[in-house]
Design goal:
The chain is 44% helix and 10% strand. It has two domains: 147 residues, P-loop containing nucleotide triphosphate hydrolases (Rossmann fold, 3-Layer(aba) Sandwich), CATH 3.40.50; 165 residues, Helicase, Ruva Protein, domain 3. The strands form three sheets. The chain has a five-stranded parallel beta sheet with strand order 2-3-6-1-7. A two-stranded antiparallel sheet has the order 4-5. By secondary structure, it is of the alpha/beta class.
Length: 344
């Protein structure tokens, strides 16, 4: 994914302009930043922008995907180890905290770390020092921490799955990144930006997307967010023989979204068949059920899907079909810390 902030800055989307303004404001400080949002919204890119816009830009940016490292190896990955600390420790290894000294350490998916690693991380955040696995000497560290998660750490700490004190250490400056479906005004600029980059990468000249593709993009729920949009466009760009991306090379479920959108309302006219009336009743009942469901779960997709007995992908498709936005049901948060959602 490009590190260019233009990837988000659609002129009509106040939510992303607010996010970027917050990032620019906090970047020159030493404050710990917690980026929250769904997978694929660009949290890793924002972390790099924080580093790029900080006074540490000439030092290392080191990234750790906490969910990808086995729990029994995470302590060594973060803090390093001494020779002989365990069976395969044939030499001293420097951990990510040492490698990122005077720079920025990005802890991606920090909500996945286990209880033991949470204790160690809390210690280094409090004391700004640590010791390698198997070592006795303390190592001082001067690292700017940027963490990211696609889970609700506030709920996790309330339920005892994440340490309350560690949550507050990480949550100094929270930034919530809205999903792509909540900022569809960005889509034209995003698509143009990505196609221009693909043209340079593959030495082709694609001028844009077909009108039917553009309509489908506007109603598809984009569960994979910007990352999914990139993948869809890259595949189509590679396969497309013309100068405009056509529906032939766009995934069927993306194109079907536009068709589903047209199937919600009953046919016009004063006389309807019994099937028409039943279908209209089902539509009204489903819409009301989904509205009540999200209200009861305060807009949380995972919990709502579990209650409904469907997948989160199915739920998002239904919400798009009925024009229901989960952001309308979320708990209110301080305006200074949570950007307003964009209206599609």
């Amino acid at each position: 994914m490009s590190h260019d902030p233009d990837l988000w800055t659609g002129d009509q989307c106040p939510a992303m302009r607010t996010v970027l303004a917050m990032v620019r404001t906090v970047a020159p400080t030493v404050a710990t930043v917690l980026l929250t949002g769904e997978t694929g919204v660009g949290k890793g890119v924002l972390a790099r922008l924080i580093h790029h816009w900080s006074n540490r830009r000439d030092r290392h940016f080191v990234s750790v995907h906490c969910g990808a490292v086995p729990e029994n190896l995470l302590e060594s990955e973060l803090f390093g180890h001494e020779k002989g600390a365990f069976t395969d420790a044939h030499r001293r290894k420097l951990g990510k905290f040492e490698l990122a000294d005077h720079g920025t350490l990005f802890l991606d998916e920090v909500g996945t770390i286990g209880a033991a690693a949470q204790v160690k991380l809390l210690e280094v955040l409090q004391a700004r020092r640590f010791h390698r696995v198997g070592g006795e000497e303390h190592v001082d560290t001067d690292v700017r921490i940027v963490a990211a998660t696609n889970s609700d750490l506030d709920v996790a700490q309330q339920e005892g799955r994440f340490r309350r004190d560690l949550f507050h250490r990480l949550n100094v400056f929270p930034v919530e990144v809205p999903p792509l479906r909540d900022r569809l005004d960005d889509l034209p600029a995003l698509v143009a930006h990505l196609i221009a980059r693909l043209n340079r990468l593959y030495s082709k000249q694609i001028d844009g997307v077909d009108a039917s593709v553009e309509r489908a993009f506007q109603v598809y729920p984009w569960p994979g967010n910007v990352r999914e949009l990139e993948n869809v466009l890259e595949r189509a760009h590679i396969l497309e023989p013309t100068h405009r991306i056509t529906p032939h090379f766009i995934p069927v479920d993306v194109m079907d979204a536009a068709q589903d959108e047209t199937d919600v309302s009953p046919p016009a006219g004063s006389a309807h068949t019994l099937a028409d009336v039943r279908n209209a009743a089902i539509v009204a009942a489903e819409r009301q059920y989904l509205t009540d469901l999200l209200a009861s779960h305060r807009g949380r997709i995972d919990a709502s899907a579990r209650t409904a007995g469907i997948t989160t992908r199915q739920l998002r498709k239904l919400l798009t079909k009925y024009g229901i936005r989960k952001a309308d049901f979320k708990r209110q948060k301080p305006a200074a810390r949570t950007p307003p959602a964009c209206h599609p």
